[in-house]
Amino acid sequence: MNKLSDRIQRLGYSQTFVMSNKAREMRAAGIDVISLTLGEPDFNVPDLIKQAAHDAIDQNFSHYSPVPGFLELREAIAEKLHRDNNLQYKPGQICVSNGAKQAILNVLAALINHEDEVILPAPYWVSYAEMVRMMDGEPVILDTSYHSDFKITPEQLERAITPKTKAVLFSTPCNPSGSYYTYDELQSLAQVIARNPQVIVISDEIYEYINYETKTQSIAAFPEVYEQVAVINGLSKGYAMTGWRIGYSACPEWLAKACEKIQGQMTSGPNTIAQRAAITALKTDPAEFQYMIDEFRKRKDIVYELLKEIPGFKVLLPKAAFYFFPDISFYCGKRINGQLIHDADDFAMFLLDHAHVGSVGGTSFGSPDCIRFSYATSEENLREAIRRIKVCLEESVITPA
Ligand code: PMP
Ligand code: GLU
Fold it and tell me: Which residue, of 255, 270, 285, is where some domain finishes?
């Protein structure tokens, strides 16, 4: 008899962690694997943020915080949203969580009833579809492609909305594609949303600072949809604080209160030391942390030139975040050295086994023709990883299936 719930049996593992664990296990077995799997900055936490955490320990911030986070942190978030995104939020509309991951889950748990539909433009971040299913909802996937810069059109969105649609969930800048919606594109999506007042947009803006072109926009800045948007953000990416687990949502007050209710029963307020450090991070001029973005930009340009040289890869130059998401459909439905490659997941496994480079196949991002490489690692690792892939594929025999 299976003792596990139906819910847990339906749930998939996070493929980002599955592939990074596989790479780690191979390394532990003595195989020299370069892992371009997990998306997390390879920088240390900036010293002034670390100092704030030391101070918080010395000042005995050792008790429970309020469930949605310290008021001072929520004020700093409100100020940041005003400073960077021209958004007006009161601390009562903000809930600080254990990473953006929990912030998204809180919002979904607050909104989704059995079989409610949540629209996910693909490629989407791996956890979105599983989170929707965990809440008993139905993901509705909208396809995009390499040719449309992996973005949906307002017409596509409009056609997908049904009476059962509860939410639309996307990241801009996007993990995995590295695209983001321009002001005009967001405005036309906002017009569709405004015509459908039952729909909430969950706008994941966690890669906001990791951006190589113009500043990105938040859909919440369009007044006609402000009441229909939950903004998600956090400190994992822009401040290299992945392990400190601070993320947040900013929503209409009724939704923020619901998030607080859920979090109060699940995890309480997040780690108090990390919260105090987050206050310092958010109050510091983002220009102080620009050095990380400059380094990512340099790597992106190098990786782009190298990836373009790999046979069968169609590569878009990402505008933001730290991922490449090449279309490798050339290899799908073929055999490499006799091994059948159905989709990008098989291809990612082939690269791990034969080139000793870890990546994440696109199926769990809703794009089975693509493969994700994170370039949040050293230039040396990146050059060597791509050299290995190129040599491996050039030396392989590709035949029809
Ligand atoms: N959203 C996106 C698009 C992400 O890539 C990540 C990365 N983990 C998250 C949310 C979750 O971030 P956090 O570490 O704050 O939970
Ligand atoms: N967001 C990162 C990624 O996409 C971290 C892993 C995760 O949270 O899934 O790789």
Answer: 285
